[in-house]
């Protein structure tokens, strides 16, 4: 490699920073969707870099299912305080209480799908015109077709068959009243890129990404965390295991990995050796072949 | 844990973006599936899903094409609708594939995928040889300024792996290519995507072929010269004003270097004002840099306090881009609503937003025969045409063949906000 060639990770970083600056320039009221997961934490880090020495020029929005890992909330609050950022929380519980969303029942009940209602309501309430998300194209096949700037109609819906062509780095953020954009600055990153970047940049993560002891139970090939609102089938029993999260979402659908990895270096080795995709442990994707495609059309992250 | 994976090597990889072009049934999805599968980029759960689907569809083999299957509508109709992006890595490079559908009605998708690519794979079915579609694919790759074209002659297994078949196609292609784009870097590889010959593993069936496998070529194509490293160009993207006590007077110009080098002390000119000044610093979050070059995202501060906003261009003092309101460009039309001669459109160029009138259509290109159709034909979706535009405010531009960033534009229909055309400035 010669001196004038960036390494792939530096190039991806430069691309993401470019996209973030483009959001700040093209939109009046952008917001960063912050889940407490590693991808959104990397987005926050990139945002700091993009606008330095100024503060991040948009608030963070957390869609709170009420079914969180406690560690994630703690981490979120510390990060917000350090950055002197503005945090908004959209509550799924509130959406349920106000009758905007109906709680799922049964064994596999999850609030994952309900998040969409809360997300769209919150975006509308604050008149946000661009929501920055940490989705990556390598995660899932519906996401492989996403644009950096993804147009959403006034109902927040995605029309995969009628997306705007996106050429070079000329992003078209023009929209009508009531419409908004989802913007994905780390579209071109893979899971390994994210972890290597976390290591290279020394980015802090919530402790649940690292091995810890937890009460868990086994369902359909996935370890899930035991929690008061998680109903067990008769044959299932709670066990105490050493686990970590490979992705972090709502507790009801986040699969846990049996692991001894307790540093970022260990995690990288583990990922390099693993033969299952990151979302392979996501219970929400297993509902059908097109589970993500369907949720995305409705306005999901 | 025993480290088996080298972080040091990973942090030293280059990024190669490539696009794939082939007609329907040329085996494009199979080729991409093969690249992913043989380079061990397929995970077990993906493999299981594809195995299940292959059996369900009654196929005998593992259907590699299913790895690139996307949306439900595509699975149902067995087609690709939109550009999909795929990722894989080898120890030396990370690859981004812009997987675009080949059919003529998707010319716009191919143009989209080609716009950011370093290399294009053009697939030819060995049974059919060079056909009109091949001309179209190669022409678009060249029009979009893709530096390297890799021609893969696929389905060699169905032609008994014969060298004469390969040579005939190679000659036909070169014959046509030398007339259209004589300076284009081209490579030719005989492959069978279905059986894996010369994709990742060298073929045992074609001992007469001495060149590298496709993966080998993708790993070694030189890409360091793919950016314009000569003419300093910095489109101002965003003005950083911290408004804090610590950085009270700080005024930085954030952007991505589009061409050439920028160092502290360099003499620069700011467009459109034409004012001259000097670079004070090249700032980043991690500290100031001695040098910035494409495609780095940095923040420049300047010696003099001049009024600069988004859409302005900082260029080398002795090396300014062309500037003006009259632009001639090759347009690819991308919208079902045809081009309106004399129509007004919003235009995006680097970080600059202007409006324009489409004053003249010089000619429309017959994309399959590459003949110029001079009479006043409508420019419809997937057409490529040479046009003249007049902008409301001047653009600061280079020819697309010199710089893909400062030489490209998109047009937007202001009634629908849709991106209706992509343009390469001549």
Structure description:
- The complex is a heterodimer of chains A (301) and B (426).
- Chain A is of the alpha/beta class and 301 residues long.
- Chain A folds into 2 domains: 8-193 and 290-298, HUPs (Rossmann fold, 3-Layer(aba) Sandwich); 205-285, no CATH class.
- Chain A has 8 helices and 10 strands.
- A 6-stranded mixed beta sheet of chain A has the order 3-2-1-4-6-5, with helices on both faces.
- In chain A, strand 2 (60-64), helix 3 and strand 3 (87-91) form a beta-alpha-beta unit.
- Chain A is globular and about 55 Å long.
- Chain B is α+β, with helices and mostly antiparallel strands and 426 residues long.
- Chain B folds into 3 domains: 7-220, P-loop containing nucleotide triphosphate hydrolases (Rossmann fold, 3-Layer(aba) Sandwich), CATH 3.40.50.300; 233-316, Beta Barrel (Elongation Factor Tu (Ef-tu), domain 3); 322-425, Translation factors (Elongation Factor Tu (Ef-tu), domain 3), CATH 2.40.30.
- Chain B has 8 helices and 20 strands.
- A 7-stranded antiparallel beta sheet of chain B has the order 7-13-10-11-12-9-8, with no helix packed on it.
- The relative contact order of chain B is 0.11.
- At the A-B interface, helix 1, helix 2, helix 6 and helix 7 of A face helix 3, helix 4, strand 2, strand 3 and helix 5 of B.
